[in-house]
User: What shape does this take?
Amino acid sequence: MVEKKNVFEIRDFSVYYGESMAVKNNNLDIENNKITAIIGPSGCGKSTLLRSLNRMNDLIINCRVQGQVLFRSVDIYDKDTDVIELRRRVGMVFQKPNPFPSSVYENVAYGPKIQGIKKKSQLNEIVENALVRAALWAEVKDKLNESGMSLSGGQMQRLCIARSLAQEPEVMLFDEPTSALDPISTANIENLLQELQKTVTIVIVTHNMQQAARISNYTAFMYSGELIEFGATNTIFINPRNKLTEEYITGRFG
Amino acid sequence: MAIFDEELSALKEKVLKLGSMVEAAIRDSVKSLMERDSDLAREVIKKDYLINALDVEIDEECIRLIALRQPLARDLRFITTAMKITTDLERMGDLAENICERAIELNEELMLKPFVNIPKMAEIVQGMLRDVLDAFVRKNTSIAYDVLKRDDEVDNLTVMNFNELLSFMLRDQKIIPLAVKRTYVAKYLERIADHATNIAEMVIYMCEGKIIRHMELSE
Assistant: This one.
C-alpha cells in the first residue's frame, strides 16, 4: 500500500482557553518524513497548535478544541482515541531537557517497560538502539547507570529524544528544543533532527528563524492564532507572499 | 530608523554613486571619440580605479551584511541584487575604458567616415543605464521590463554598423585597421547594453522574487 503523503491534516481547527481563542481556524497539512517548522511571535498560538497534535492540551483546564486533527486520516479528538497510544506514536520534546531523576538506562527503558517489555536482552537492545539514533550512545555507553541529570544540557536533551525514540514514534514534536542550549549542542540537535527525519516526521516550534531556515522543509508562520502563511521554507525565507510574514522574518514587526 | 535600515539605505546610496560614476565614464568615453578629445579619454582611463575601488567596497559591505545581519526575504533579495549589479556596473566601467583606448587610437588617424550608428547606440545605451538605475531605486519593474526590450535595438545597430564597415573594408583593404577598431567600439556599446539588461533582470528578481534570466520575454 502506498503511504499517504500527509501524516497530519489539520482542518478548521481552533483551540480556546476559556473564552480566549488561541488557535483560530487553522488548516495545515504535515507531510510524512519532512521537517515542518512553526514560527511566529510569542503568544501567537504556535506551541498550542503543536501540543494539539498529541493532545497535550487535554491537561490544561478550560482548554477546548473545535475542528479536526486527522492523524493518518483518523480524528485524534474522537472520543474513542487512546490518548496514551497517541502520545506514544506522536512523541514530544520540550524546551527544557526534562530527564527522569533516574539512570540514563532507566530513562530510555521506561517507555518500553510500561508497554510490557520485560526481557532484559530486548530492553538492552532497545536502549542501545534509541541512544544510537539520538547520537548519544558513544558519550554515555560507559555510564548507563549514572543519573540522567548528571549529563550536560545538550546530552540531556538528546537523552529525552532517545527516551521518545525508544517508543518508536511516527512523529516527534519539538517545542523550542535548543533554546536552552549552546551553539555546539544546538548544531548537534539540528544535525540529529535532519538524520531522524529519514524515519520520523518532525514538527518543530522555534523562535530561532535561522534554525527554521537551516533545518526545515516547510515553514508555517502564525500570528495571533491565525496561520498567516505556509509553504516551502525556501519560499517563506526568500520570497514570502504575505506582507506580515515578510515583516516578521525581516525583523520589522509591529 | 533601525540601524539595519540605515545600513541598507547607505548600501543603496553606494550602488547609485557607482552607477553615476559609470554613467559619466560611458558619456565621456563616447564624447572623447566623437569630439576627438584624447585628453578626456585618458582621464576616463585614469579614473577607472575609483570605480573598481567602490565595486570592492560594495561587495565587502554586502558580505558583511549577509554575515552579521542574516538578511531574509526582501532584504536578502536587495543585498544579493546590489552585489550582482555592482559587478555589471564595474564591467560597464571597463568597457567605457576600452572605448577610450580605441578612441585614442582612432583620434590619431583621419576620420574614416562620419559616425552615424555609434552615437545612436550610445544614446540608447545611456538611456538604458539611466532608466535601469531608476528602476532599481524605485523598485519599479515596468521600467526594468522596458529596458529589456530596448536591447534588441542596440543589437540591430551593432549588426548594421558591422555590415557598413564591412563593405568599406571590402572596397579598400587599407582601412581595415580603422574599421575594425570602430566595430570594436560598437561591440563595447552592445556589451554595455547587455550588462544593463542583466541589471534589469536583477531588479525584477529583487521586486518579484523570480529569476527571468535565460527566458524569452513573451508578454
